[in-house]
Specification:
Blueprint lengths: L8 H8 L4 H8 L7 H25 L2
């Protein structure tokens, strides 16, 4: 339930009283959702914000 609700691995580790996050990941890593899409979206958002910022600077300099 913790993993499904998006809990960080360190939180799951603490709640399950695992000695290390490695133990938690070795046991439960397959239950964490695939993060490829969310990381792509995060990078895309940062890049879009940077482009917008550069456009604003360029427009202000005119």
């Amino acid at each position: 339930m913790l993993i499904a609700s998006g809990a960080h691995v360190k939180v799951v580790q603490a709640r399950l009283r695992h000695a290390s996050a490695k133990t938690t990941l070795d046991t439960y890593a397959h239950l964490w959702p695939d993060s490829d899409e969310s990381t792509r979206a995060a990078i895309g958002a940062v890049m879009a914000a940077r482009v917008a910022s550069l456009r604003d600077v360029e427009a202000d300099s005119r």
